[in-house]
Amino acid sequence: RREPLALINLKKKNEETGEEELASRLDHCKAKATRHIFLIRHSQYRLDGRADKDRTLTPLGREQAELTGHRLASLGLKFDQIIHSSMTRATETTEIISKHLPGVKKISTDLLREGAPIEPDPPVSHWKPEAVQYYEDGARIEAAFRNFIHRADAKQEEDSYEIFVCHANVIRYIVCRALQFPPEGWLRLSLNNGSITHLVIRPNGRVALRTLGDTGFMPPDKITRT
Fold it and tell me: Are 194 and 43 a contacting pair, CB within 8 Å?
């Protein structure tokens, strides 16, 4: 429903000629800019925490976030914003990354919290959440995809560069949906902590994946997937 034709009222006609001014109205609704989406997985965190507030970053996790922040800063891009999951490990990762990107506003959202997006196919034996979790989390994560992953608004004149700090399940599902791959295959993808996934959304709505789970900027002994 973001295709320009879906955004105009085809029944509206020119009062003088009685003809539809389709071409001019279509141009008004067409995107002009490209969106660059950088999906960052949070750094390593304490798995033994009972509540979310206790699942803070480990010392290694903080190092990973520093490396990720340094890598993003080294790209020399003018980032527009950092949108992050409201969970502790994503918030802490964001705070460290943002030190390397001064002046970039941060926005917290519950939509990007970790969860079970859709039952994976093929199924796995080591991870089997309750069926109700797919209904609760799946609707929210799909809402996150629809809310954040789309072509630029027609009013946007320049290309944008946005960072999203969230979780492996959310990123994997978003990548499958954005590329129009079967979303049930999300669990076949693997993402390291602090990794960078780069999606490009062109004005015509076409999506390209430039990097998936990149951690080539980290020393091998700093790389984890927990």
Answer: yes
Q: Does residue 59 sit in the same domain as residue 123?
A: yes
Domain range holding 192? 32-222
Question: Residue 165: in which H helix or E strand, if any?
Answer: strand 160-166
Q: pLDDT tens-digit profile of 123-166?
A: 888 888 888 999 999 999 999 999 999 999 999 999 999 999 99
Q: How many domains does the chain have?
A: 2
Cβ(57)–Cβ(89) below 8 Å? yes
Q: What is the rounded CA–CA span in Å between residue 37 and residue 160?
A: 8
Q: Is 140 left (phi over 0), alpha (psi -120 to 50) or beta?
A: alpha
CA-CA distance, 172 to 191, in Å (whole number)?
8
Nearest partner of 175 among 66, 80, 72, 39, judged by Cα:
39
Report d(CA 17, CA 153) in Å as an integer: 30
**How far is CA 136 from each of CA 3, 53, 115, 121, 192, rounded to the nearest angstrom?**
29, 21, 9, 19, 26
Task: Decide: pTM greater than 0.85.
Answer: yes
Considering the domain architecture, whether residues 67 and 148 belong to the same structural domain is answered as yes
